[in-house]
Model the fold of this input.
Amino acid sequence: MELKIVEYPDKKLKEKSVEVKCFDALLHKLLDAMYPLMLETNGIGLAAIQVAHAKRVLILNIPNEDGEQSKENLIEMINPVLTKKEGDAVYQEGCLSVPGFYEDVNRFDTVCVNYQDRHGNTKILETDGLLSIAIQHEMDHLEGILFIDKLSYARRKKFEKEYKRMLKEKKENKNS
Ligand code: Y12
Ligand code: CO
Done:
């Protein structure tokens, strides 16, 4: 399955993803194609809508203490639901769909998430730190929300200006 990252301002990213009911070979194909793409693009989290599939599917692969990602630590979440959100955290986030821009975002510190694995088995995970932030970031994608949507008015304006300039430069470099 050939996948490509959908980048802002593509309207596809605003779509609300739909519940997965079939845990079939097609779902496994999608998950199997998302993982190498996420690694190739230096991502630690990726939602299916970022590869133009509006399904409630996301993957996470947090690097270990040596900064290395391994398949052992890959988490695949289907139909995730937050059942607990506690405390406050601020983290400088980035997104494969908004390349080149990083900004502080307010999140919950600890979350508990109920989800299904690729076979439809129910799982529960309670976590904090980077994994908690990544879960919240990726779950926002399922609602069509990007981290830039959570910025203050002034920071969002700054982003739009910088991003427009970056896209213009990209276009000029491509044509020269
Ligand atoms: C903390 C903050 C955000 C998340 C969500 C997952 N985000 C990512 O995995 C973002 C990765 C990323 C990688 C980039 O590098 C390339 O595309 C090669 C990137 O691009 C540039 O900066 C040019 C942007 C974001 C989880 C936890
Ligand atoms: Co993202």
